[in-house]
Amino acid sequence: MAKRTKSALKNARKDLKRRLRNKYYKTRTKNLIKSVFLAENREEAEKRLKEAISFIDHATSKGVFHKNTAARKKSRLVKRFSEFIIKLEEERLKAI
Asked: What range does the domain containing 45 cover?
């Protein structure tokens, strides 16, 4: 850090806190999205999907994601989820 004024030092502290908070939200979002597709059955997957979408909305309200970014993430997640459910049902039917 080049500047040593009081305000520059304070801004550096604030930046660090914000960076760590944003990293937490982004990492947790990625992990929740991954967990949706690790589910063993449809009910568990739907529960995890709802949790992931809720968390994306929460992160958006905190300013971590722009609203359009959140909408895009949710849209892609739901699209992948639909494909995943179809695959899960096919596997279930093959097992019978």
From this structure: 6-95
